[in-house]
Amino acid sequence: MANETVSLKGVYSSMFESSLLDEIEEKSMLFTATAGQDLIKAGQSIKVVPLMLSGTLKVSRINEEGQELLLYYVKSGQGCAMTFSCGMMSKPSQVEGVAEEDLSMLCVPVNVMEEWMPKYPSWRKFVMATIVDEFIDVIKNVDEVTFKKMDERLIGYLKEKSRITGSSLINLSHQQIADDMGTNRVVISRLLKKFENDKKLLLFRNQIKLLKDM
DNA sequence: ACATTAAGTGATT
DNA sequence: AATCACTTAATGT
Hints:
By secondary structure, this protein is of the alpha+beta class. It has helices spanning 8-12, 18-27, 81-89, 110-119, 121-165, 174-181, 185-197, and strands at residues 29-33, 38-40, 48-54, 56-62, 68-75, 96-99, 103-109, 169-170, 201-204, 207-210. The chain has 2 domains: 8-119, Sandwich (Jelly Rolls), CATH 2.60.120; 142-210, Arc Repressor Mutant, subunit A, CATH 1.10.10. A 4-stranded antiparallel β-sheet has the order 2-6-4-5. Helix 3 (81-89) crosses helix 5 and helix 6 (174-181) crosses helix 7 (185-197). The protein starts with 7 loop residues before the first helix and ends with a strand. The chain binds a DNA duplex through residues 149-150, 173-175, 183-187, 189-190, 192-193, 203, 205-206.
């Protein structure tokens, strides 16, 4: 069961003004769930918005074949982007929520939290920060799924080259790599660019420098 | 200065 | 993931 010592003020006092904390205390309901428990599935309407106190909530999308795509996790001190968005726009949930670990949360009625938007700057900021952070997580996951196969192949290729030559400097054009791997130069260029953005390597003309956190 | 090759990027399939 | 089309950057003559 959820840890009883985790309190509203323990988690949120640095984020919200005291008047808002008082109002949360007054108008929210404590809710606890055990690991594996389904909290919401796609299509259900959203009547309350959670403020996580402890544990982890997993938010995911499940397609027709039952395959799951992880969207984001919600942990202590965070809200849930999907409930904020859909709650305010009166749209049914587009996602499924499951307790990843035992969790405790405070549930705020949607109509109440809508009143807080104009009333409390700290609440507005919290909602927007939640949406941005979790949206970024979703994008990251989409990237991973989209690029996974060639990703791993290319990294394996580069490591092998590096091991064989005994150097972290690889003297090959993108075209040569593409030829070796039986793929298109453009694909290689895009993946390498992505790796460079992830600080895995540095790109030069006809030369790739592998970095430590490859 | 000009031509050639390598790399980056949007759009489409 | 591949292809096309086009741009931009680097290099050689």
